[in-house]
Amino acid sequence: MFLWLGIKFNNLTRISLYFLYLLILVGGIVRCTGSGMGCPDWPKCFGKYIPPTSEKQLPSNYKKKFLDSRLEKNERLISLFSYLGFKKLSIKIANDPNIRIEEEFNVYKTWIEYLNRLLGALVGLALLITFISSIFRKPFKNEVVLLSFFALLFVMIEGWVGAIVVSTNLLPGLITFHVLLALLIICIVIKSYFISTINSQFKIGNYPKYIYYLLILSMFLFISQIILGTQVREAIDYMTNYSKSIDRNNFIENLGFEFLIHRSYSLLVLMVHILILYLIYKQPIKINFLKNFTFSLSLLVLLEILTGVGMAYFSIPKFLQPIHLFLAFLIFGLQFYLFLIIRANKYKTV
């Protein structure tokens, strides 16, 4: 059986990556529907492995019960962060009034969050099987095994961070860290897949060195853009939950400078991708795979900008939010994959 798993490593890695992206899409749906606190505890949901379908199935004091439990967990969390030297974060958690909010049962939000957690567990299982497969893969490669191990490890850490996010009632800074860790996991899985599948299609000849550096720049710019996007999202969440006097139609005009930078910055990101596309098409080497790949990447960046424009001009419609998030992760994954392809080839000095 284990030898069979070794043979199927490439397929398992690809399946794990599909599950990761599906989890990101579902996570976006959780955010846009406000279902992040649909289950006020973790890993159970309202104290059950299978959540209730009616408030009648819960004790009369369930709000206070789960709030007290969450506050108790936060006390331990505050002590841990203080011990590790994160005193500012500890103070922020301790003084955040949001963590003292009692959560009402909503069957739709509960089951959306529960399905999100089930999918998260499925991702963990897929990466565990992939790690076992990497050990029995032929030929054996230490790098592939280590990457598979770290993908599994970081997914477990991501699950723990998710528990903290729930415990702290979606504390803003932790949400940003949650997103960045997800990006790291995707990079690890893509790198593992790339190493295990590298073949003649990646032998694209010599490309100018500046294309390689432009790809690095594009990834740096896009990560910065994602961070700005999470900050904009956190500001919108705050207005949704605590600024009832602000109408949703006026959310955009009440956002801070982060939104203005996020909006204008997107044009710079698009320009860099168009430049990379132009430079690759300009090369005498005829590699249709690479040219089509880069063209598709540029189109996705344009589509990402259009979804952002749609949210800005149509009062942030909920159906666009998970699409915008999913496209961001998809673009970064493709950027990283293209970077690996270019780096795998010797580039000429210009």
From TrEMBL:
Keywords (A to Z) from UniProt: Cell membrane, Disulfide bond, Heme biosynthesis, Iron, Membrane, Metal-binding, Oxidoreductase, Transmembrane, Transmembrane helix
Main location: membrane
InterPro entries: COX15/CtaA_fam, COX15/CtaA_HemeA_synthase
UniProt key word Magnesium: no
Membrane-spanning ranges: 12-30, 114-132, 144-164, 170-190, 210-228, 264-281, 293-316, 322-342
Any one GO MF annotation of this record: oxidoreductase activity
Keyword Oxidoreductase listed: yes
Mode of membrane association: Multi-pass membrane protein
Localization per Swiss-Prot or TrEMBL: Membrane
Pfam families listed in its UniProt record: COX15-CtaA
Pathway given in the UniProt record: Porphyrin-containing compound metabolism
GO cellular component: membrane
GO biological process: heme A biosynthetic process
Positions in coiled-coil regions: none
Protein name: Heme A synthase
Organism: marine metagenome
